Amino acid sequence: MRYLYLYLALVFSLAARAQSDSSLFRPDFVFALLPNHPVARIADLQNIESQMIRLQAKGLFDPKFEFDQNAKEFDGKDYYQLQKAGLTVATWPGIDFKAAYKNSSGEFLNPQASLPDNGMVELGADANLLRGLLFDSRRAALQEAKAFALANEAERRMALNKLVSEAMSSYWNWAASYGKYKLVDRSLQNALERYEGIRSNFFAGGVAAIDTIEALTLVQNRRMDKEKMNYELTKNRFILSTYLWGADSLPLRLSATAYPIEITQWNQSFFVRDSLESIIRNLDQFQPELLGISADLVRLDAGRKLALNNLLPEAKASYRWLNPSDQFLNSEDFNPTSNYTLGLSVNVPLFLRKERAYLKLNQIKRTEQNLKLIDKRNTLINKLGAHYEGLVLYRNNSLLAQQNFSNYSQLFEVELRKFKMGESNLFLINSRESSQLNSGIKWIEQLEAFEIQKLKLLEEAGLLLSE
């Protein structure tokens, strides 16, 4: 659990130490704006949808008030008038408690419906004795609502993980483009400085004209490289802007003067084996695809319980204690064994073919889902292992690339001093600088690949939530 938000904690802790420049767009700014993204807002609506589905299922247990009145009048005769008002309270064990007031009158009233002059009060209950006693459609609906909420949470986590992964990958693409742009721009400034020096020496008669052409050619190449890097930088800035939304649901646009953190100065966190094992242990709790399969299993479990319940005979009992309404509050001799109605009904399907077939189909589907769960978990574990090995590769390569860049920079500085002392030539200077530039670009690419690989690992594990 302590590795759950490892990446997010790293971003916030390190970015907080960055310089407070109004043009510096830090990684935590992306996280701060992501909740305003339409995908994130749709994900929030899924939470509300789950709550409403649960509320709908709980509504099956809501108390019900009932009122019924029937009357017949024909040829000037009052045949009958029947009134009934009552309250039914459903309970979890499948017993419905009932309270009702009844009244009747009329010239041709059925004797069975005859009641005291002031009406009669009934108190009692309807109960399932076998089928529906331990489980019924109402409790199945509650369990299915839980499954729906789990499925919605799986979809929500999948959408948010993808959103965070894409947004932060775009940020690191932008940061890498910015680092490359700065390297090429520095190389261009060096080439311009050398060109101006060689050009001055040419007019002073110190160097041949061919040297000015070689110096100018490098300047032109560096200018083309800079334009290309500027295009990449601008393109990645626009791509990142697609993930930035204000609280008023209006899209934001990164300013052309905004710039990211220096990727070469970013302290890259590295997963240790313990943290990877911790992520794998928590897969069932956070991984969206596994959560989705678990939701199907919860739903199928509700169907299994209902199918087992439907194999039982349908037996229902009802009991009502009867008392005249004018004596109800003053009755001192309450006796549930007198003045009552009692009902019992039994319904037994002889072959239960429909119920047995439904249960068998449910067992098949549950077996399929369990096998799918095992296969998906094994696939994810292997993918996470592969992503981790990718982290190791990019981490080691970035360290080697950093050392290479440092070495080439030292070689370039030495060659530059020799050139200024007249002990080297322009070809060697250009060669050393090109090697330094290429090694710097390769270093930045390894750093970028490391961060994106980390995002892939955490996305696969379902841990890239923007909460």
Structure characterization notes:
With 467 residues, the chain is α+β, with helices and mostly antiparallel strands. It has 2 domains: 6-36 and 147-302 and 360-461, Outer membrane efflux proteins (OEP), CATH 1.20.1600.10; 65-138 and 314-352, no CATH class. Helix content is 60%, strand content 14%. The protein is built from 10 helices and 6 strands. It has helices at residues 6-15, 27-33, 38-58, 137-203, 209-241, 273-281, 283-286, 288-310, 353-420, 426-461, and strands spanning 64-74, 77-90, 95-105, 120-128, 314-324, 340-347. It has a 6-stranded antiparallel sheet with strand order 1-2-3-4-5-6, with no helix packed on it. Helix 4 packs antiparallel against helix 5, helix 4 (137-203) runs antiparallel to helix 8 and helix 9 packs antiparallel against helix 10. The longest helix is centred in the C-terminal third of the chain and has 68 residues, at 353-420. The protein is elongated, with a radius of gyration of 39 Å.
**How would you state the average pLDDT, rounded?**
87
Counting helices, strands and paired strands, the structural category is: alpha+beta
Q: How can the largest sheet be summarized?
A: 6 strands, antiparallel
Number of strands: 6
- Structurally, the number of domains stands at 2
Q: Poorly predicted ranges (pLDDT <50, ≥5 residues)? A: 1-20
The amount of beta strand, in percent, is 5-15%
From the coordinates shown, what is the CATH architecture of the largest domain?
Up-down Bundle
CATH topology grouping of the largest domain? Outer membrane efflux proteins (OEP)
